[in-house]
Amino acid sequence: MSYESNPILDKLPKHLKQFIKPQNYEEYTAIDQAVWRYVMRKNVDYLSKVAHSSYMDGLKKTGISIDHIPNMYGMNRILKEIGWAAVAVDGFIPPSAFMEFQAYNVLVIASDIRQLENIEYTPAPDIIHEGAGHAPIIANPEYAEYLRRFGEIGCKAISSAKDYELYNAVRHLSIIKEAHGTPQSEIDEAEKHIGHLQENMGEPSEMALIRNLHWWSVEYGLIGTVDHPKIYGAGLLSSIGESTWCMTDKVKKIPYTIEAAHTEFDITKPQPQLFVTPDFAFLSQVLEDFANTMAVRTGGLSGIKKLIGSKALGTIELSTGLQISGEFSNVIENDGKPIYIQTTGGTALAYREKELVGHSTAHHADGFGSPIGKLKGINIAIEDMGPRDLKAYKIYEGEEIVLEFEGGIKVEGTIVTGTRNLMGKIILITFEDCTVTQNNKVLFQPEWGLYHMAVGQHIVSAYNGPADLNSFNLMSHQITESTIKLKKDEKRIQLERFYEQIRHFREGKNTTVSRNKVLQALKKDHPKDWLLPVELYELAKQDNNQEFQQELLEHLEHIKQDNPKLGHLIDDGLQLVDTALVS
């Protein structure tokens, strides 16, 4: 096992465990630790004034350190006290899997950390975003329940075939943008490809809409009033650039409503507007309003059509409770209602999320088709017939019968048996020597074997994924592209060593290091590096070594002149040092 389990992680289904990877804590360099420390110190200093109170409380409750990248094992020991756990993953994972982890009270944490060059913002999920952004807020019980419920509903959202293409394109962009030395032309090409996909998505799927809700609440949400908002979204909490930008008048503040589901976002740019919820409970209200529009609650013809459009594994549930899981390929409709449904390939039947004996994908390897609705000219639906009604209409073992449904579907054959649910309702009728037709079109013929006819007047629910997780092999996830590790040359290895020496000096592990020699080497071999000189300045300030302080300030001034974009980062770092020592 590549991770340390606990009672919460033990409950994860197998298909989610395939996304978990080891954190490999020893691979974090001293530069990575310095990046974490800088961002966290700056965040805590600033966010203590503008973040929702749950953030600072949550940092304490979750035990997330300002000085050290969190170790997943340590986080889990603390998170379990609030009923949650965390696992490491490789960058973006498919949205439905991400949501399903949340439904099990598990935070997925991309264990990579942003490069120093992207210290303010990265489009790639990283441990600063996940660990310092998401984890602290879940210590708030109302918000934690919202997150869990969001996952539960979100993983049932139906995607379109184009959604997965967009997911792969966004994942690719996030990887190359964070990778060291990617040519700008390659980044431009990837961004152009995403733009083209977004312009040609067609009608947004349920997953696209609920992903918008997730973005404008969990990732980029504000809370309070439009005039005096506070930050709670993890994307803002973990971005030292956007957390400041979002509080200016340049970013429009809008009351949070279900309309947020129809507001697109661009992952590559700062957000032009943000939504403000009055409190965490209101988030759940909007989520339930949105869920009421989803096929999981509305079913019907539109639900089955969404599943056909997804070209992926999905489930419909009939009014009897019978659940049919597979890849839906066709629906015959009449008068705006579905009258016959068809899957292709392995299909499984279930009741209350448990596969029916004898109705696995092996039994329905070539697909499954069945009429839906009422019999023609008979007021009572088959599912509402008691044993005497069924016998009166000759729906009975051994009877040769012709069942004609509204819309012209005809089932002719000999009844072998029926299957009932716990409430005594008939949910499935098995025929032999059976022919199923609509007008002159043959939908099933006797030589294909036994015909299993689903019983159900309505499709009450349609959703992504199988009813019974054990019915299908879901261990099929293949990552097409992994995050790119930095290829280190001698200069990089030397710079990491300098960072490590200074870190050890600050922590008292080795106080014999000559900080002056480190600075001279930086000036000579790494003249653009600014973060380590800021850390050296902090140590010089603590020792009250004014001469060394002055030399460092002059060096940092040269860096600012050569690289004006680094100016505010350097100034903020120096201010943090001065403020910390005064306080």
Automatic annotation (TrEMBL):
Residue ranges annotated for the Biopterin-dependent aromatic amino acid hydroxylase family profile domain, each copy included: 1-340
One GO MF term: oxidoreductase activity
Keywords: Iron, Metal-binding, Monooxygenase, Oxidoreductase
Entry-linked Gene3D superfamilies: 1.20.58.690, Aromatic amino acid hydroxylase
InterPro entries: ArAA_hydroxylase, ArAA_hydroxylase_sf, Aro-AA_hydroxylase_C_sf, Aromatic-AA_hydroxylase_C
Keyword Metal-binding: yes
Pfam families with a match to the protein in the record: Biopterin_H (PF00351)
Ranges that cross the membrane: none
Cofactors (names): Fe(2+)
EC number(s) given by UniProt: 1.14.16.-
NCBIfam families from the UniProt entry: PRK14056.1
Assigned protein family: Belongs to the biopterin-dependent aromatic amino acid hydroxylase family.
Protein name in the entry: Aromatic amino acid hydroxylase
